[in-house]
Amino acid sequence: MSSRAVQPHYTPEEYLALERKATSKSEYLNGQIFAMVGASRAHNLIASNVSREISLQLKGRPCEVYVSDMRVRVSQTGLYTYPDLVVVCGEPQFDDAERDTLLNPTVIIEVLSPSTEAYDRGEKFAHYRRLESLQEYVLIAQDRVRVEQFVRQGDRWMLSEMSDRNDMLHLASIGCDVALREIYDKVEFSNSEEPGAV
Length: 198
What we know:
alpha+beta; tt1808, chain A; 5 helices; globular
C-alpha cells in the first residue's frame, strides 16, 4: 500500500475563503491550490514599468490597470490566477460582491520567470484563450530584451515578437503604445552581449 499523502480537494468557494485570509497568494485549478513564489528584482521592475506607462496613457479613460494582486477567473476552465498585469476597458465584471476576482480582462501581461515560462506559454495561455473578453496576451522576458504579443483575430491568435529597445509594443485593444526601452528601464542583464542593450 502506498504511503503517498493524498492532496486535499477544495471547492472554488473553499479556495476563495482561504485565499481572502491568506498572507501569500495561491492559484487554483481542479480542486487543487498552488502556492505562488516571490518575484525577482527584474520581474518587479518590468511589471512596475509597464504598469506606469499604460496607466499614464489610460488616465481619464474608462479602463483600469491592476498589478499582480487582482485575481482573474477563467470561468470556462475553473482557473483562478494572478496575472502580472491586467487591463480591463469598459465595465469590469467580478465573480462576486467582494470585487476581487475579475472575469473580463481585455489585456493580460505576464513577465516570464524560469519556473513559470513553460506554463505561461502553454497551459496557462490555453486557459486565457477561453476568455471571450481577452484581446491581447503579452509575454515579457526578464533575462533579455524580448516581448511576444498575441493578438486575437477572430478565432485565431497572431504572434509578433520584438527584441530591440527601440521597438514599440502597440496594444491596439486599449489604444496604448509602450517602448521596449521603457519596459526595460533600469533592468540589468547578466549577459553584456544582450542584443539591443544600451
